[in-house]
Structures are given as structure tokens and as C-alpha cells.
User: What shape does this take?
Amino acid sequence: MAAKSGAQKAAAAKTGSARARILEAAAQRFYANGIAATGIDTITASAGVAKMSLYNNFPSKAALVEAYIETRHEEWLGLYEARVADKATPHERVLAVFDAYIDHAESGYEHGFRGCGLLNAAAELAADDPARAAVRRHKEQVEEILAGHLRELAGGPRAGQLAEHFCFLLEGAMARAGLEGGPRRLLDAKEFAAGMLAAL
Assistant: This one.
């Protein structure tokens, strides 16, 4: 499942339910401008809905942020599932995780690629915020996906160590890619990972 372009998202937002339009508008604004810098009025104007409609669907901005985090997580899982579906070997399935990150970086962002939307959001949230905990769960799930594939290549604790190592590689590359506005660091990370896998 390819990520939607900015124009596709805008078209979908105009025809979808009020909740979907609000969530899409929030996603675009939170990613482009940050959570703290994005007010409810900006979101409702972008979504073309009344403020009451937002509060009928999300009791607070915090609830909207949590829904945004969950939606971003589901979008990434969709990218990963599309990439892994036709992979025959554990080696290919590990690299499919890197491909999903690359697909994320190559999506059509209206205001440019800024790195991982989940980590960007988490950086703005208090340490005990439930949405921050949701970001952590997502990153842990990515590590577990990698560990599952790596167990087929290297059993025991070695698979967990490699999964952690690959997550460091992925997240570091994503941070640099976000700063540079393109996927090159993620492509490099995939190449490094392929070399490590070949040595197993």
C-alpha cells in the first residue's frame, strides 16, 4: 500500500467523514508544523468542519493526538505488510522493514519530509503522556518484527541483539534522513543491513 500524496489526501479529506477529515487535517498539520504549534482552529479550517464537529469526534486535543499516533502506526504497518507480502526468505523480510521506512521517507509530504512523525510527536510530549507510550509501543513492535525474522537466521539471544542493532541503524538513519529531507541515509542503512545479513 503506497502512501497517499498530498493531493490524494486532500481529495480524500473532502469526501470522507468529518472524523476522517479532521484526522487527516491534523496529521498534515502536526507533521508539517508540530503538535504544539498547531491549534484546533487551524485543524478545523483545514478539515472544513466546525469546531463542535471536532469535539464531537475527539473530546480533547490530546485525544486527537493519540488518534494521530495510532493512525501513523497503522500507516507504517500497511507499508511494511505491502513490502513483506511477497518475500520468500527471512533475509528479504528483514530488508522489507527497511523498505517500509524508505517508502515512508519517499511519501509525498506537502511541506517536505521531516523524519519519523511518531518520534517528532514524542519529542513534544511529556514523559508520562499516553501518546508517547503509544510511540514506544510502535518502536517495540518494529523491533519484535525484526527479531521474528532474525530468529529464522540466528537463533537464541543473538536474534534479539541483532534486532536491537538494526533498530538503532533504522532510527539513526531516519533521524538523519529527516534532517536532510530525503531517503539517502535509509538507503545506506539498508545496504549496511544487507551486508550484516550476508555475514550471518
